[in-house]
Specification:
The chain has about 70 residues and is of the alpha+beta class. It has 2 domains: about 1-35, no CATH class; about 40-74, no CATH class. The chain has 2 helices and 2 strands; from the N terminus they run E-E-H-H. It has helices at about 20-30, 50-55; strands spanning about 5, 15. Strands 1-2 form a two-stranded antiparallel ribbon. A hairpin with a 6-residue loop joins strand 1 (about 5) and strand 2. The longest helix has 14 residues, at about 20-30. The two termini are about 45 Å apart.
């Protein structure tokens, strides 16, 4: 549980303890900490090797497992 945040600003450091302020600071951090690419990769092969292998189809899984995916439930 995150119940406080210390903002280490050079001229005005702050300790946030109000749950609303903490929530807003967490939201702000995660929305701005890492820049988001404006366009997704055009193909799975454009991903880094780590992710390419994670998202590539598995050869040991039969595609037949999907044949009834959209069938109505009994």
């Amino acid at each position: 549980m995150l119940d406080r945040i210390f903002i280490d600003h050079p001229t005005s450091p702050q300790l946030l303890t109000d749950p609303t302020d903490v929530s807003a600071a967490v939201t702000d951090h995660f929305q701005h900490a890492v820049p988001i690419k404006s366009t997704p990769p055009s193909h799975i092969s454009a991903l880094p090797d780590r992710w390419c292998s994670a998202y590539s189809p598995m050869n040991n899984v039969s595609p037949d497992i999907y044949s009834s995916l959209l069938s109505p439930l009994p």
